[in-house]
Design a protein that fits this description.
Radius of gyration: 18 Å
Strand order of the largest sheet: 1-2-5-6-7-8-9-10
Number of strands: 10
CATH topology: TIM Barrel
Structural class: alpha/beta
Largest sheet: 8 strands, mixed
CATH architecture: Alpha-Beta Barrel
Strand content: 5-15%
CATH superfamily: Aldolase class I
Number of domains: 1
Distance between the termini: 47 Å
């Protein structure tokens, strides 16, 4: 396998350390919780945990899908833990979060894809920390719109579903997903709750062309996506999809500008941007722009 190019100077993550980082790590272990920060080997874990924030991953740490860009374990998932929403709520309360992001593995083994647990987590957060805004980063639920309604009816502030890549690369990058299904999830969520923010995320560096990214962004806007994140794909290991090239900070700035011109309320675009990176900042906007 060809060697990956060395990271350029603008790919520099903070080394995980510090008292708050250690406290968050102890909390996650004590409450027997999972975070996408660890499971997906996020490069921003040092920065985020030292800022006393984390993206919680519910429904276990084993995914039923085999996307080759993702470091989360694949296989047969564990039974649903009905007590998990309570522990998530306790963790949010302990950290006194102002904004929380809750995501999950894909649970295609469950009839509702885990929607009831997502809803329970949202309700638990509302009960324990009413001032905390809630963002859910959900799987595609195999297109089950009734399951989507269960999550939307629990009133998250932001519903995020990642597009990940351009449609031409879906078969290679997301072989068990469907591009039109992804767009439909976002559009249907917005139709169910027009005042709720909708959000999606893209990775670049997998072999897509610049104009394909622009077209994908336009497709998202046409399906009522409000917020967008764009970041550099970094292979978690040699077993994962090869990264084809690095985008420069200037190119990320160009994508941000293009997205703003399309009408996205906020575009977070940069080499180390991930779905939940600076998530609170993305909804601290002028209400007049909505």
């Amino acid at each position: 396998m060809p060697l990956q190019p060395k990271h350029p100077l603008w790919i520099r993550a903070r080394i995980p350390s510090g008292p708050d980082y250690a406290d968050v790590k102890r909390l996650v272990r004590r409450k027997q919780l999972h975070t996408v920060c660890e499971e997906a080997r996020c490069p921003n874990i040092g920065e985020c945990w030292e800022s006393r924030t984390a993206t919680f991953m519910i429904l276990g740490d084993v995914c039923t899908r085999r996307c080759m860009f993702c470091a989360v374990a694949k296989g047969n998932p564990i039974a649903v833990d009905e007590e998990e929403p309570r522990r998530i709520g306790e963790a949010i309360d302990y950290l006194q979060l102002k904004h929380v992001v809750i995501t999950s593995v894909n649970r295609d083994d469950l009839p509702d894809g885990g929607a009831q647990i997502f809803a329970a987590c949202i309700r638990e957060c509302r009960k324990r920390v009413p001032r905390c805004s809630v963002e859910v980063l959900i799987p595609d639920l195999l297109g089950n719109m009734d399951a989507l309604a269960v999550i939307v009816n629990a009133t998250p502030d932001v519903l995020n579903h990642n597009t990940e890549t351009v449609p031409r690369l879906y078969r290679r990058v997301r072989p068990q997903a469907d591009y039109q299904r992804t767009l439909s999830i976002i559009a249907e969520a917005k139709a169910m709750a027009p005042d709720m923010f909708t959000k999606s995320g893209l990775m670049v560096g997998l072999g897509e062309k610049f104009d394909e990214i622009i077209q994908t962004m336009q497709d998202l806007r046409e399906h009522d996506c409000d917020l967008l994140t764009i970041g550099q794909y970094l292979p978690p290991s040699r077993r994962h999809l090869r990264m084809r090239r690095y985008y420069t900070p200037g190119e990320f700035d160009d994508l941000k500008t293009a997205g703003e011109e399309m009408g996205f309320i906020h575009v977070e675009s940069g080499p180390l941007v991930r779905s939940s990176y600076h998530a609170q900042r993305q909804i601290e906007i002028d209400p007049g722009r909505i």
